Structure formats: structure tokens, C-alpha cells
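User: Can you recover a sequence for this backbone? Please restate the input before giving your answer.

Assistant: Of course. Working from this structure:
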């Protein structure tokens, strides 16, 4: 097969043994070498491609915590606070007041011809409106008293519904389900916290879940990744075990030549808060690996242990929340968690554990320690994901146990001010997402977007970890800043390491897949405050070029 040599202004390899070059030779989707033209031309007859000669090539970004929901949300009205980029490169504007929210919902209501069809929108978060009372069903009743309405919060851990949605699903104040919001008189206020309560309004949540099962959601997921330079992305709450019919669709879409990324799907073994016959589920996970392809992998399993900090449903160690009402919910049974995880660990399946609060992180660390005493596995790379309030003591223990961290660095920008002023207070907000401390203690880490909670974009997650800037201009924890190179490593080699894929992707070197992101500027040389503004031309996957919707 003909060798193609891509020319660039600069190639950053993230391979310490060969850090830079200007040309990269590719054959049959694999990298032959990186260096000068003279150094890589010796492989044989080649075609020189100068398309990127004015661009910067870096390893394709690896997003180690995202969800197909990022694509599914493209199919539902977006009513979040911040502007959001859409798959076609356009922008959905943010909602800055309750009046705008109600008017936007009224506009969406007018588009629906069937008077009984539920109206479902996504992206809202009440924490951005501290001068307003908590959003309730009475606010949404201003839109309609007859059409059921569900507003799915940005965190994915809460929803707010109107009176008609409660009635349509026979949800009443007599129900004793944790997470059902109530007013001071004990009446339901329309807020639903965590899956057990949210799923009571099944006619609305069915639309939320269903949007992510549509083919267009997968296509938009791939487009969003390409637009931001991501070549490998997780779906970190996959349902190919719980809903096997979805597997065929994943295989179909990812198998198409025009699909621009690899997907590492981490399936959930049971709905959050529920138990299962995990020995049997682990066998199903192993069997699922028989379906792996070049662009679809099943590295492991995902457990969800708690809620979100901004939703006050994460479990936080003493002294607890700085302000607001603690709605912390543990979505596992502590005494059983070892038995839940052990079958997957024994089967050689990588385990990622959702822990927003540091109290649940204690449980995760203690559980992995017990599991390793039962069945030692020196290269497990089990990961605590989000890990937002990780303490110094926890980092030291994680290092000894070989646990990885996947920090939700985007929280510094999207909720940093709220964490400082409302949820956890100044000291803990300044130590949020402690990347520098993880480096010091020898904990391998990546940084992530949790898309669609926040938008896909590795340049943005890098920017947050490097600058730690909030929208108000506050710097959260100067001492926890990391360098641009360390941030780039977090979204390339370190992220690939967490997925047990670092032998294939994450750096540009001979024998690895020819996956790279094509950028307008060098992220290691620009002003660090400009990293998130770097233009993305698109990506190359196995040597095939995929331009972004709006190449830059």
C-alpha cells in the first residue's frame, strides 16, 4: 500500500524518546515514523500530503469520560446557562434568566402539535440563579398545565417537572421515594433527585434515554468529537448489556468508513442504586468483548456511587456542604460493594467508579484495597472518575494502590464560582480537581468533560487544568495549576493509559495507530489563556482525514 507522509509546521508526539518532528509517515493506518522528511522517507515510495503544512499535529485527543448523551442532547431543546456548540458547528445560546427559560419552553410547546406529547428539554441548572427561588413545578406550570414537561438538569442527576408530568405518571406526595423534592408543607415541588426519583416520571425520562439510542445521536457524537480534535472517546455509561439491541446499532455506525472516531464503551452492570447477579453480568461483559472491532472497544465497567456536588447530592466528608441543603445519596451498598466489583476485577475488566464526593471516594479506595488483597492485579488501572474533592491522604493511598484519577477539570469553569461561594466553600474549592497534587503523589490522571454535562472539548479541559479560572475571573488554587505539556499528556497518553489502550493510541510513534488532531496553533507555545481558543482543522483516524464542520 502507498505510504502517505503528512507535512506539518510542527508535530508534537508525546513520545519522550522522539518529542517533535515535521513529517509523519503512515501506511495502512499505522504510523511508520515521525521526524524530518529525510528521516521518514526511507520507508519507500510515498505521497507527500502538504494539507497541514501550516498546522500543528498532536496525538488525537482521548476523552476518557463522556457519554452518548452528548449526541442525544443535540436532538432535544437545549436550555443551559452557557452557550453550547452543536454538531454542525453552530451555537445554541445560553439561558440567563427564568423569564428566558419560560419563554423558551413556551416556544418549544408551540412547536408540538399533539397536546399530550411530553415536552422534554435539557441543560438547565438552578444553581446559576442564586437570586431566584429553586425552580419548581409551579414555574413550569406557567408554560402549560396540561402538557407534561420535564427539564433535565445539566448534571444528569436531577430533573424538574411540572404538575402535569407528575399526574401523567401517578407520582403523588404519598410516595416514599428518596429524592422526591418537597416544599415546606410536604407537597411535591417537582424536583427529582437521582435515578430512583427521576425514573418515576418515566414518560419524560423515556424521551431523555431514547434520544441517545437514535442513530443520529451516534452520528452527532462523532461529529462533536471530530470538531474538537478527539479521535477516541468513551461512552462511560453504555447500555449494550442492559439493552442488547443497542449493540447492533453501535457496531453498524462505528463500522462505517465515514465515522470519525473510536469508541471505548464502559457499560453499567445495573441501574444506579440497584443490585444484580454480578458474577453472571461479568461473564456477559467478557462475552461482549468478542464483538470488539477496530473502532468499538469494551474495556470495562462503570459504577455510579453518588450524585453531583452542584446538585447537593454528592456525598461529602465533614464538615459537609458550605451552604444549601445536603441531599447526598449513596447509590451502592457499602457492605456489598466488594462483592459487586470483584467479579469484574477477576475477569480482567477495568473498573471506573463515579465519585463526585470525597466520602464516596473513601468507599471506592477502601473497596479496591480489599479487592486487591483477595485477587492481586498489578496493572488494573481502576479509575476514580470525577474525583473532584480528592484529599491529599486519598491521593497518597491511590498512588500505593495503582488507582488512576480522572478529574472533572471543566467544573472549575462551569461551577467553580458556585463551589467557592455555595457548595463547598473557599478552601475545598481551591483544591478542586487537584492535578498538581496528583502529579506530586504519582497518581496517573486524565481530565475530562463528562459530555453532555459540559461540552466535548479537550482543549477546554486542558485550559481549565492549566489556568483554573472561573467566569468571575477568580483563580481556584494557584498551586494546583499544571503546565500545558502536563495537561496535553492528561488528554492523550494518560487518558489512553486509563483505557488500557496506550499501546495503540495516545502518542505518535512507530507502530501506533495514525490518529491525530490537527490544530491551528501550538498548545505548548501560545499564551496559556488562549489554549481553549485554538482552532481545530479536524482529525486523522487511521490515516484518513476528517475535517471539522468548520475547519480552522
Amino acid at each position: 500500500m502507498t505510504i502517505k507522509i503528512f507535512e506539518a509546521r510542527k508535530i508534537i508526539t508525546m513520545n519522550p524518546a522522539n518529542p517533535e518532528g515535521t513529517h509523519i509517515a503512515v501506511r495502512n493506518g499505522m504510523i511508520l515514523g515521525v521526524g524530518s522528511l529525510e528521516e521518514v522517507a526511507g520507508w519507500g515510495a510515498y505521497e507527500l500530503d502538504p494539507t497541514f503544512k501550516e498546522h500543528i499535529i498532536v496525538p488525537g485527543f482521548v476523552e476518557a469520560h463522556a457519554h452518548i448523551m452528548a449526541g442525544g442532547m443535540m436532538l432535544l431543546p437545549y436550555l443551559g446557562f452557557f452557550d453550547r456548540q452543536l454538531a454542525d458547528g453552530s451555537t445554541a445560546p445560553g439561558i440567563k434568566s427564568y423569564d428566558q427559560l419560560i419563554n423558551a419552553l413556551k416556544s418549544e410547546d408551540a412547536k408540538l402539535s399533539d397536546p399530550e406529547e411530553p415536552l422534554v428539554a435539557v441543560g438547565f441548572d438552578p444553581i446559576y440563579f442564586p437570586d431566584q427561588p429553586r425552580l419548581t413545578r409551579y414555574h413550569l406550570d406557567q408554560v402549560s398545565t396540561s402538557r407534561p414537561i420535564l427539564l433535565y438538569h445539566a448534571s444528569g442527576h436531577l430533573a424538574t417537572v411540572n404538575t402535569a408530568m407528575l399526574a401523567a405518571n401517578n407520582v403523588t406526595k404519598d410516595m416514599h421515594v428518596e429524592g422526591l423534592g418537597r416544599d415546606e408543607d410536604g407537597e411535591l415541588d417537582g424536583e427529582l433527585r437521582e435515578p430512583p426519583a427521576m425514573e418515576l416520571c418515566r414518560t419524560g425520562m423515556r424521551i431523555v434515554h431514547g434520544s441517545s439510542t437514535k442513530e443520529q445521536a451516534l452520528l452527532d457524537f462523532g461529529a462533536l468529537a471530530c470538531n474538537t480534535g478527539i479521535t477516541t472517546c468513551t461512552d462511560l455509561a453504555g447500555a449494550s448489556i442492559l439493552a442488547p439491541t443497542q449493540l447492533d446499532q453501535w457496531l453498524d455506525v462505528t463500522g462505517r468508513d465515514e465515522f470519525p472516531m473510536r469508541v471505548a464503551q464502559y457499560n453499567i452492570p445495573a441501574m444506579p442504586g440497584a443490585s444484580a447477579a454480578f458474577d453472571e453480568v461479568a461473564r456477559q461483559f467478557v462475552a461482549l468483548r468478542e464483538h470488539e472491532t477496530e473502532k468499538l472497544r469494551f474495556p470495562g465497567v462503570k459504577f455510579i456511587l453518588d450524585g453531583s456536588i452542584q446538585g447537593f447530592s454528592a456525598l461529602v466528608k465533614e464538615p459537609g456542604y458550605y451552604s444549601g441543603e445536603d441531599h447526598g445519596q449513596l447509590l451502592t451498598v457499602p457492605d456489598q460493594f466488594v462483592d459487586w466489583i470483584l467479579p469484574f476485577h477477576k475477569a480482567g475488566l477495568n473498573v471506573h467508579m463515579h465519585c463526585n464526593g470525597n466520602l464516596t471516594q473513601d468507599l471506592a479506595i477502601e473497596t479496591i484495597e480489599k479487592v486487591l488483597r483477595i485477587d492481586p492485579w498489578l496493572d488494573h488501572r481502576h479509575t476514580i472518575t470525577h474525583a473532584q474533592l480528592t484529599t491529599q491522604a486519598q491521593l497518597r493511598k491511590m498512588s500505593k494502590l495503582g488507582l488512576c484519577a480522572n478529574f472533572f477539570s471543566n467544573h472549575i469553569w462551569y461551577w467553580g464560582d458556585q463551589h467557592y461561594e455555595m457548595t463547598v466553600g473557599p478552601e475545598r474549592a481551591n483544591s478542586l480537581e487537584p492535578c498538581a497534587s496528583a502529579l506530586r503523589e504519582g497518581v496517573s490522571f486524565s481530565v475530562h468533560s463528562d459530555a453532555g454535562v459540559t461540552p466535548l472539548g479537550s482543549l477546554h479541559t486542558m485550559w481549565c487544568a492549566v489556568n483554573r479560572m472561573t467566569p468571575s475571573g477568580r483563580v481556584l488554587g494557584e498551586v494546583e495549576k499544571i503546565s500545558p505539556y502536563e495537561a496535553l499528556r492528561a488528554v492523550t497518553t494518560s487518558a489512553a493509559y486509563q483505557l488500557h489502550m496506550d499501546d495503540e493510541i495516545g502518542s505518535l510513534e512507530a507502530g501506533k495507530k495514525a490518529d491525530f488532531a490537527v490544530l491551528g496553533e501550538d498548545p505548548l507555545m501560545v499564551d496559556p489563556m488562549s489554549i481553549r481558543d485554538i482552532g481545530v482543522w479536524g482529525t486523522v483516524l487511521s490515516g484518513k482525514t476528517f475535517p471539522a464542520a468548520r475547519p480552522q
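That completes the design. The chain has a mean pLDDT of 96.
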